[in-house]
Amino acid sequence: MEDAPALTAENLNPAASRPVKFWAIAPVVAMAAFMEVLDLSIANVSLLHIAGSLSASKSQATWVLTSYTVTNAIILPLSGWLAATFGRKRYFMASVGAFSIASLLSGLAPTLGSLIFFRAIQGLVGGGLQPNAQAILSDAAPPEKRGMAFALYGMAVVFAPAIGPTLGGWITDHMSWRWVFLINVPIGFLILPLIQSLVRDPPHFAETRSLRRKNGFRLDYIGFSLIALGLGSLQVVLDRGQQNDWFSSWLILSMTAVAVLTLIGFIVWEWTRNDPIVDLQLFRNPSFAAANLLMFMLGFVLLGTTVLLPLYVQSLMGYTAVQAGLMLSPGGLVILLLMPLVGQLTGRLDARWLVGLGFMILAIAMFTMTGLDTQTNFRTLMWIRVLQGSGMAFLFIPINTVAFSSIPVEKSSNASAIINMSRNIGGSFGISIATTILIRQAQFHQSVLVRHINSFNPNLQAFLAKSHSVFAHGIQTGGSTTGEAMGFLYRNLLQQSSMLAYIDDFKIMGVISLAMVPLVFLLRQKKGAKPVHPIVE
User: Fold this and answer.
1) Does 188 lie in the same domain as 150?
2) pLDDT tier at 9, thresholds 50, 70, 90
3) pLDDT at residue 105 above 90?
4) Which of 75, 189, 218, 389 is most buried, by CB atoms within 10 Å?
5) Rounded Cα gap, residues 26 and 29, in angstroms
6) Residue 102 — pLDDT band, cuts 50, 70, 90?
7) Are the CB atoms for 263 and 227 separated by under 8 Å?
8) Do 288 and 409 sit in the same domain of this protein?
């Protein structure tokens, strides 16, 4: 008979020692999530360098981004099932190690084809880092510290996409595009031994593994095939839709049909299974369902504006990548500063009021952006971004806290996989719709403005007359001041058309944010959440 374990304070009261362990685990686990989310956006500004270095077109180089997002979207909802089957700690460590190796291979890739392949592998093996990091933090924290757990996780996954393009641009300009991927390698191998020594699986994971081992390992091949094909097709549609002119393209039309049919088939197939790879029954909980909708819209606005603002200041105002990063960075910093405060408030106030306040601040920031123009100064842009970041800080933690408050602890990995999938898909929709609106509305506004440029418009005649004297001194013999004036006018017309399109985008984001406020009251936070199980090997 084995000797009984010694009676210690930790055995008598596991929660008593957990806060110390939590603060040791938190930065390590959050860094793993940060590393994976960062790779969603860090390579965006390096595409021209990648294309030039590997003798490819920019259109071909965009598959470096698409391959990552497609495979990442496929594995993300499955990560809860994989963690329960193989053990969360084992799966998490395997993901970190494989992600680091895939990053190394991506950085050393000799051809574009090999880079796209290794990026696909990187997205596939890294897809489990976000949800499992969140689940580990949620289980490791005492109930009263769960808001702080989500604060640390939120600091990683909300700050990463904001700083990604700036960091990627700096690395590309001062080192090489290859270091955009290689930077993950030392970080990954540094945190692996820390994860090994600090992270433990809750007892129910051992029970689940034992039961599945007893019954035999059975993968739901039909469910896996349906979700892989469905989410993969959806991600291709969102990433390539605008570039391929949406439903004018047979590829996009076909992929859309495949995505719709397979995802409906997946929902029908998985809904009644006893051991689903994605636990859709969690959506029976109204608070969890509402939290996923709100998280989807948070991802939509967060990543949509993260793409729009750098484009706006660089294309219309002549900012460099570094200047654009300096303008955006204070918004990320205010998120870092406010999230610990919001984490404390979440344990003391009704989370619904915090979420409502967050969406209201976000809506005010977006409507303020509709007053921007091409002469707006750096400080104004920076403070509007800070206001937007303040709203984001009040959303992520309370939404997650409410989503997990009524979910049994043994379902935490499944819940984390689903809510992270909602945020990521929301972000993909946000980027795709924002860029489509930008391009289509710029064309629309250009066609409207062009109508006023005709020989009967007295303002045009006055402009040409004034321009004659302005341009005359720079024209050599035989030159045409009228030609220069018309060229100058057309450049301004294009600039103003684009500016109006950005305003349309910001207005739509503001309306969406405002529309989320009434939905906040669909949330129901469970009072006196049950403590998590003690964590053991």
Assistant:
1) yes
2) very low
3) yes
4) 389
5) 5
6) very high
7) yes
8) yes
With both helix axes pointing from N to C terminus, report the angle between 146-174 and 321-346 in degrees, rounded to the nearest 10. Answer: 170
Does residue 535 belong to any structural domain of this protein? no
Which position has the token pair 């979700």?
Answer: 227
Residues 9, 12, 16, 22, CA torsion sign: positive
Contact 321, 169 (CB under 8 A): yes
Contact 353, 525 (CB under 8 A): no
The residues near 356 (Cβ < 8 Å, ≥ 6 apart) are: 517, 520, 521
pLDDT (0 to 100) of residue 520: 80
Predicted TM-score (pTM) above 0.90: no
pLDDT number for residue 11: 41
Q: What average pLDDT does the segment 9-33 reach?
A: 60
What gap in Å lies between CA 500 and CA 449, rounded to an integer?
11
Closest by Cα among 112, 117, 120, 97 to 35: 97
Residues 182 and 209 placed together within one structural domain of the fold? yes
**pLDDT at position 17, please?**
40
Distances (CA, A) of 242 to 60, 227, 238, 430: 15, 24, 8, 13
CA count, 13 A, side-chain hemisphere, 251: 11
d(CA 156, CA 163): 11
Residue carrying structure tokens 């309370």: 398
**For residue 14, is pLDDT > 60?**
no
Cα angle 23, 29, 30; round to 5: 90
Asked if 436 contacts 242 with a C-beta cutoff of 8 angstroms, the reply is: yes
Query: Could you read off the pLDDT of 327-344 as tens digits, one per residue?
Result: 877 877 888 788 778 877
Q: Output the six-digit token pair for 229.
A: 């094909």
Instruction: Tell me, yes or no, whether 256 and 393 share the same domain.
Output: no
Contact, 121 vs 75, CB < 8 A?
A: no
CATH number at residue 149: 1.20.1250.20
Q: How many other β-carbons are positioned within 10 Å of the β-carbon of residue 158?
A: 25
216: left (phi over 0), alpha (psi -120 to 50) or beta: left
Task: Taking each helix axis as running N to C, give the angle between helix 221-240 and helix 412-450, from 0 to 180 degrees, rounded to the nearest 10.
Answer: 20
* 3-state SS assignment for residue 201: strand
What is the separation of C-alpha 482 from the centre of its chain, rounded to a whole number of angstroms? 48
Span 359-394, pLDDT tens digits? 999 999 999 988 888 888 888 888 988 898 888 888
Query: Would you list the DSSP string of 240-300?
Result: HTTTTTGGGSHHHHHHHHHHHHHHHHHHHHHHT-SS-SS-GGGGGSHHHHHHHHHHHHHHH
Closest CA to 184 of 336, 34, 67, 29: 34
Distance, CA of 418 to CA of 280 (rounded, Å): 9
Tell whether 224 and 150 lie within a shared domain: no
Least confident of 151-160, 211-220, 332-341: 211-220
